[in-house]
Amino acid sequence: MLPLLMYWCTAALSLVFAASACAGSPTTVRPSPPATPEVSAPSPARAVVAAATPEAATAGRRVLEAGGNAADAAVAVAFALGVTEPAMSGLGGQLQVLVHPPDGKPLVINGTSVAPRATPLDAKRESLVGRNASTVPTSIKTLAHLFENHGSGRVTWAQTIEPAHRYAESGFEVGAFRADVWKGREKALRDDGGARAMFLDAEGQAPVVGATWQQPAMAKTLARLARGGPDSFYTGDIAQEILEDARANDSWLSKQDLAEIPPRSEEAPLTGTYRGVTVSTQTPPGGGWVVLLALNLLERHSPEDLRGKRREIHMAEALALAHRERRRAPVQNLLHFREETDVRTSKEHAAKLERESIESRHPPSDETGGETTHFSVVDATGFAVSVTASINAMFGAKVAHPTLGFLFNDYMHELRVTSKPHPFRLRPRAAPYSSMSPTILSIDGKPVLVLGSPGSARIISAVVQVVQCWVDEVRDIQQCVGRPRVHADAEGRAFVEDPLPPTERGLVDHQFEVQRAPKRYGGGRLSAYFGGVHAVALEQNAWTGAADPRRDGAVEILETKP
Q1: How far apart are CA 187 and CA 196, in angstroms?
Q2: Are 314 and 352 in a shared domain?
Q3: N or C: lower Cβ tally within 10 Å for the chain?
Q4: Neighbour-count burial for 146-164, b at 16+ CB within 10 Å, e otherwise
Q5: Residue 535 phi/psi, 5° resolution?
Q6: 357 and 482 assigned to the same domain
Q7: pLDDT tens string 343-394
Q8: pLDDT tens digits, residue range 9-60?
Q9: What are the DSSP calls for 380-397, one per residue?
Q10: Which residue segment(s) compose the domain that 453 sits in?
């Protein structure tokens, strides 16, 4: 059973926020049997939000109830996640957005952040600490673009911020996954005065499961952002406070970095097919092309082969080859990449790679294994939005602005310290390496599945496995999201979540070094190491959603009257 919230309404908390009227009625989600996905107008009309915290899912639903569309709801979800899942995203980070209008073509809103202009050309990895671990935050700029260019016009910018403001001011209940993550980063958060004040109690302890956690500094910042609009963060009074802190802490961030963030660009997504279903996904520097490559490799097996006991072996082989290709030959031109990605995502390239052996190993990766969050929204018109948001590692740089209450990201760690040419070489204005892969599947131009995941390179592995399950095996998105996963990397290692002895032996026989999953946050059977897919799917002619049991997520469904 999906974790659903009871519908409820509140009035606006201050004159900043406009009140919204309640609408709709509660519904129950039940698994649907396998069926060919319907692509006609779903009936009854539904809007669905799937997000990594119950509070964020409710935030999205409240904006939908107020008359907003999927883009408006997505902005509200993103702000609410920054408050209620602070280890994973927030005002100091970046996000990537994939939108698919009901009667239009999908578009990527590229939210990539970049290194500050003052980044030294000879910077060493040991200098990438504190505020200098952070790229220039772009989350608000990207959300503003989504709101202004794809929003309904029926809700205000302040209304999208209101739920997050309320959670920051009045508090939210800490779930099991979040409490476990918080506890694991307790010592690091103590080392920074701002982070300690915002995210630990008076004794320097992390909140426990069920505790109500408030963030008064963040509440004030969100209220200012609602009044002053997004520009206040980049050129207004909030920006001035950010820059005063930067000067006091020898940060490379400058006034020019904030004021001259380029307008967010829109571009066609990378597109391929899996069993005839169109797959649209993230452009570089994200990991979408690796998702398409892995799916092409899997498509060379019949659906029957991927339903049986050899599924995990075929899956591990495809993922290992795809991740190895990414390590061996990353996309070189992050601005003009189409020629490269067209080759990498072709069926012919997959056939060529399949003939290679996974026995060819690569040296251990220097990737940091960052964390993230993902959410998906579809409104009653079928407008679909898939968003992956992040501050990179859990709690980012473990440093918070002392008065504004947000965490700085540590995306500078995703740049390579090298004097050799490399697309992700540490240098001024460099875009960091990313595995973000918000993805939307469509049939005859209509969205049928909206998904994505956190988890660094495991993002790609998680998205691929859920897509394969839903297309090949069972049109039950909760079942596909809740199934145990495998992750295979470029080094020939296979990480297994809930292994059966025959599966483990089979992977060893196929030259994999099998390792068990790392720490299981939240105490559940499944491990958040393997991602946190929050998805919305069209099943039995109606939209439904799935919250990954590996995290504290929830699904909200709003029925609308015919």
Answers
A1: 9
A2: yes
A3: C
A4: bbeebbbeebbbbbbbbbb
A5: -135, 155
A6: yes
A7: 999 999 999 988 765 555 544 454 445 589 999 999 999 999 999 999 999 9
A8: 333 333 334 433 333 433 333 333 334 455 555 656 799 999 999 999 999 9
A9: TT--EEEEEEE-SSTTTT
A10: 266-370+434-559
**How many beta carbons lie within 10 A of that of residue 165, not counting itself?**
26
- Residue 177 CA from chain centroid, whole number: 16
Overall pTM surpassing 0.85 (yes/no): yes
Q: What is the mean pLDDT of residues 96-125?
A: 95
Looking at the fold, whether 438 and 406 belong to one and the same domain comes out as: no
Is the pLDDT reported for residue 228 higher than 90?
yes
What is the total count of domains within the chain? 2
Q: What's 416's DSSP letter?
A: B
Q: Domain boundary residue among 359, 379, 414?
A: 414
Q: Are 23 and 42 a contacting pair, CB within 8 Å?
A: no
Residue 369, amino acid: G
- Hey, what amino acid is at 456? S
Q: Which of 43-52, 68-77, 340-349, 443-452 has the lowest average pLDDT?
A: 43-52
Torsion of CA 508, 551, 207, 367, to 10 degrees: 50
Buried b / exposed e across 304-314, counting CB within 10 Å, b at 16+? eebeeebbbbb
Per-residue exposure over 500-529, b if at least 16 CB sit within 10 Å of its own CB, e if not: eeebbebbeebebebeebeebbbeeebbbb
Same domain as 207, residue 65: yes
188 domain residue, yes or no: yes
